[in-house]
Q: What sequence folds into this?
């Protein structure tokens, strides 16, 4: 898998989230090297995600609402709440992830 410039890439998601599977598959298909964190697999992972979500500007619209904010791509400590695979495709190009 490729990762130009050795960017730290984390995908926060859940095996229970229907929107997370296509995003995870696309990153793999494109050869992007990333760490996948299933926030529903245990409490420490959920807490890690919530600490980020509670302060990151990318989640301003999510806080206090019904959405959790996954799938979420974190690239070098900057968060992007993904709105489907087309959004991810454009981010891959924009951020030079491949």
A:
């Amino acid at each position: 898998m490729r990762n130009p410039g050795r960017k730290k890439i984390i995908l926060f998601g859940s095996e229970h989230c229907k929107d997370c599977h296509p995003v995870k598959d696309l990153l793999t298909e494109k050869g992007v090297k990333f760490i996948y964190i299933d926030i529903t697999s245990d409490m420490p992972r959920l807490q890690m995600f919530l600490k980020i979500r509670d302060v990151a500007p990318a989640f301003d619209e999510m806080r206090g609402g019904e959405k959790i904010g996954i799938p979420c791509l974190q690239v070098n400590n900057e968060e992007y709440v993904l709105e489907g695979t087309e959004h991810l495709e454009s981010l891959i190009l924009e951020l030079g992830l491949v």
Observations:
- The domain at 4-94 is CATH 3.40.30.10 (Glutaredoxin).
- The mean pLDDT is 93.
- The beta strands are 9-13, 35-38, 72-75, 78-81.
- The first strand starts at residue 9 and ends at 13.
